Amino acid sequence: MLPPRNTNLALLSALVLAFATGIGAVWTGSARGAWIVLAHGLVGITVVVLIPWKSRVVRHGIRRRRLTRWLSYLLALMALTVLASGIAYATGVIRAVGDRETLWWHVAIALGLIPLVIWHVFARPARPRRTDLSRRNLLRAGTLAGFGIAVYAALAATTTVAQLPGTRRRFTGSYEAGSFQPAAMPYTIWLNDSTPPVDPSSWRLSLGDRRLTLTDLGRYRQETVRATLDCTSGWYATQTWTGVPVARLLTDVAPGHRSVRVRSLTGYDRYLPLSDLDHLVLAVAVGGAPLTPGHGYPVRLVAPGRRGFWWVKWVAAVELSRRPWWAQPPFPPT
Questions:
Q1: What per-residue confidence (pLDDT) applies to 267?
Q2: Are 285 and 291 a contacting pair, CB within 8 Å?
Q3: Residues with pLDDT less than 70, the chain
Q4: Would you list the domain boundaries of the chain?
Q5: What integer pLDDT is reported at residue 6 of this predicted model?
Q6: What is the 3-state secondary structure (H, E, C) of the chain?
Q7: Cβ-based neighbours of 328, under 8 Å, separated by 6 or more
Q8: What is each CA distance from 309 to 26, 103, 242, in whole angstroms?
Q9: How many CB atoms lie within 10 A of CB 321?
Q10: Using only C-alpha atoms, what is the Rg of the chain?
Q11: Contact at 8 Å (CB) between 242 and 299?
């Protein structure tokens, strides 16, 4: 049995790890980052394992009448919703709520939880002590982690035996949607972006000092690549994309260049590592047909191995930059 103070510290540590691994899970797009998604699931289940101990602390706290008690109730409700939505989406029992993927709700409510957790930490402080690193506490932590792993394994086994949709997820947690069927691939736009009207006769691609029309771009030799677009809202689609490799357009790479900036007509942009240059493609077609407006017409970036928010749509400019790619928010703020 965990003492109340140890329970609070263990839960706080688990929540911090859950947030950290959650960010990593949304970020990763290559199989090398699969362990982050696994870690996020294990930490989430560990939070579930802590619920019986935390409920004892909550029952004791309810006896104290505080004006801010409703905030604690809201925190508990949101935390339980985050856990429930995560499990529901991972198993595939509930794929969507309303017109949104369950994963979208999971992330949105988790972000809303952050200010409440910060408030709770300062309002109900449980300061670490040297004795927290005692052998007994380390054994407790190991036992707790063991319980979490066991419950996670049991949930995964149940999902497999019951042949729930969760068995067909990609390593990122995303479900297949419209692979090799571009018309069936969802239209997803980052936050407050919207599909811009594009006049193909007036559209121009800015390449530093050069400006190309669609006709000019069509004169470059095109290539066809198979790549998977994995959206952070929880779906993925593998398609055959046709377009011009970015390296074929940017041939003046000089010492000091550290990234490739790709900007959309909407103002949305991303800086990608210069090491990605040889793999980037400006696609003008998918599945043998021109891009539709929702999928980025007239030109969109294809960035194999990266999540969907790197795949800039409605590309208006591509340029080499001396700015390091990591000197930007990990996720676009708008």
A1: 92
A2: yes
A3: 1-2, 61-67, 126-128, 131-133, 191-192, 334
A4: 4-168, 176-321
A5: 76
A6: CCCHHHHHHHHHHHHHHHHHHHHHHHHCCCHHHHHHHHHHHHHHHHHHHHHHHHHHHHHHHHCCCCCCHHHHHHHHHHHHHHHHHHHHHHHCCCCEECCEEHHHHHHHHHHHHHHHHHHHHHHCCCCCCHHHHCHHHHHHHHHHHHHHHHHHHHHHHHHHHCCCHHHHCCCCCCEECCCCCHHHCCCCCCCCCCCCCCCCCCCCEEECCEEECHHHHHCCCCEEEEEEEECCCCEEEEEEEEEEEHHHHCCCCCCCCCEEEEEECCCCEEEEEHHHHHHCEEEEEECCEECCHHHCCCCEEECCCCEHHHCCCCEEEEEEECCCCCCCCCCCCC
A7: 270, 271
A8: 10, 16, 19
A9: 16
A10: 24
A11: no
Residue with tokens 């619920």: 51
| Dist CA 210 CA 163 (whole Å) | 54
CA distance 183 to 178: 7
To 10 degrees, what angle do helices 69-91 and 102-123 make?
150
Fold of 176-321: Sulfite Oxidase; Chain A, domain 2 (3.90.420)
Beta pairing class for 281-286 and 96-97: unpaired
55 to each of 9, 11, 48, 50, 142, how far by Cα in Å? 14, 12, 11, 9, 21
Q: Tell me, what's the pLDDT at 135?
A: 76
Structure tokens at 323: 């700015």
- Whether 189 and 233 have beta carbons less than 8 Å apart is answered as no
pLDDT value, residue 5: 73
How many whole angstroms separate alpha carbon 269 and alpha carbon 309?
10
Q: What is the pLDDT of residues 250-305, one digit of tens each?
A: 988 888 999 999 999 999 999 999 999 999 999 999 999 999 999 999 999 999 99
Q: What per-residue confidence (pLDDT) applies to 305?
A: 94
Note if the pTM is more than 0.85: yes
- The answer to whether 307 and 232 have CB atoms below 8 angstroms apart is yes
Adjacent-strand bridge partners of 230: 236, 307
pLDDT reported for residue 8: 80
